[in-house]
Amino acid sequence: MNASDTLPRQGHRLLQLGIALLLFSSVEGFAIPYLAAPRLGLSVHTLGALQGVLLLVLGLVWSRLNLGVAMSRIAFWFLIYSALAILAAYVMASLWGASNETMPLAAGAAHGSAFQEYAIKAIAYSSAPTGLIAFALILWGLRLSDA
To answer: What is the pTM of this model?
Structure first.
């Protein structure tokens, strides 16, 4: 499979995932008052919507990237991992009522067990390098072609 086939397919998948995240954010909004940490639930709601819009925009731009197959796959999967990992960390924190070590502004006094705090921290922190690499590759892919 070459880049001319890969990029449009990946762009379409990003559009699908963006809409799925907007749907998730819409439904999750109803659960906010019932979560162990409602303030973190609100953060999940806004982060899910932000990630959804981000993936929609990138899905529309994706076919214009000047990347080969390998680089587009790395950017695609790192972007998806980064988006879903940070969202998962916030979901876990809101359900457990934990994470004032990792997300003190959103969590406030919500503190979980050592395992919960570590799991949230590991997942949240793993999203940063993959996101940075994905965005760097996307920026590189938006360079003007020689033609």
So the answer is: 0.91
Residue 95 lies in a domain: yes
| pLDDT tens, per residue, the chain with 147 residues | 565 789 999 999 999 999 999 999 999 999 999 999 999 999 999 999 999 999 999 999 999 999 999 999 999 999 999 999 999 999 999 999 888 888 888 777 888 888 999 999 999 999 999 999 999 999 999 998 765
DSSP 60-129: HHGGG----HHHHHHHHHHHHHHHHHHHHHHHHHHHHT--TTT-HHHHTT----HHHHHHHHHHHHHHHH
Provide the CATH number for the domain around residue 128. 1.20.1420
User: How many folded domains does the chain comprise?
Assistant: 1
Q: Is residue 146 part of a domain?
A: no
